[in-house]
Amino acid sequence: MNRRGAIPKFVLIGLIIVSLVLIGGLSYLFQNEHAKCLKLQAQVDELTAREKITEGKLEESKKKVSDLTLKLQEAKERIASVTEELDKEKSARQDTAKELEQVKADMEQQKISRQDIENKLTRAQDEGRKLRDQLKTIEQKKTDLEAKIKDLESGTSGVELGKVVVNNEIAPAPKVESPVVEKGADAAAAVEPKKDQKQEAAAVPSANPLEGKVTVVNKEYNFAVINLGQKDGVKIGDQFSVTRESKVIGDLKVEKVHESMSAAGFAAELKDLIQENDLVVQKVK
């Protein structure tokens, strides 16, 4: 019976020891777990704090991203605006380049036109000089011709050309060359017509046409000088027929009248036909 009672004690003691060991082990484990829990809690707190910091940074990042997004949008709009301005400027440059090319072409054309005008001006100046030279020559010829006419007038001042009536027919007056007037009675007698001729000429009715002759032919300016003037009743605009050997050559029209001479123009085609000493007959109007 004592053995039976002793066994339970050992068992009980064993159980107690096992329990203590278990309790110690459990306590150790609990301490370890508690330490781990504390450590984990600290890590969790640290992670939480980090998370909050990260969230704060994230918010800041979001704000920065938002700001950057706005700035990016503004930058895009600016880029679009700058691109549009660049396109406009490029188009303007192209237009300017075209205008510049057109201006260059116009300048080249103006240069050519200016050169052409300068050439024409040079030719015109040359022609002007030639015309002035020709005008001087004409003036000189005119002076010489007027002097010659005056000489002819002074040489024929005592001669009257008219018509002589013979048997009721009109006959041309004798051709009288322009004599050189000399001083003295002999010279006056040489150029003075006979009284009978004067009387016969006076007897001719005034309606009869005048007759004379060509004394000078100017082929360059198409006019002739005839020995009829104011004293013969010649007026500007009177017309005369030029004849040679009873053949009509052409017509003259009086343009300038002197005392005993007249200048009459003729058509250009007659310049090689009319000659000095050809007979001229006034055309009756």
What is the H-and-E element order?
Answer: HEEHHEEEEEE
> How many DSSP-defined strands?
8
Strand order of the main beta sheet, please?
Answer: 3-4-7-6-5-8
Number of helices: 3
State the shape.
rod-shaped
CATH level 1 name of the largest domain: Mainly Beta
pLDDT averaged residue by residue: 76
By helix and strand content, what is the structural category? alpha+beta
Percentage of residues in strands? 15-25%
Uncertain segments: 156-206
Tally of structural domains: 2
- Computed CA radius of gyration, to the nearest angstrom: 71 Å
Helix content: 55-70%
- The first-to-last residue Cα distance is 206 Å
Largest sheet: 6 strands, antiparallel, barrel
Second CATH tier, the architecture of the largest domain: Beta Barrel
- The CATH topology name of the largest domain reads Thrombin, subunit H
Instruction: Give the name of the CATH superfamily of the largest domain.
Output: Rod shape-determining protein MreC, domain 1
Brief account:
This protein has 285 residues and is an alpha+beta fold.
Explain this structure.
By secondary structure, the chain is of the alpha+beta class. The protein has helices at 2-155, 185-191, 195-203; strands at residues 163-166, 169-172, 211-218, 223-226, 239-244, 247-257, 262-265, 279-282. It folds into 2 domains: 74-155; 156-282, Rod shape-determining protein MreC, domain 1 (Thrombin, subunit H). The strands form 2 sheets. The protein has a 6-stranded antiparallel beta barrel. Strand 3 and strand 4 form a beta hairpin. The longest helix has 154 residues, at 2-155. It starts with a helix and ends with a strand. The relative contact order is 0.06.
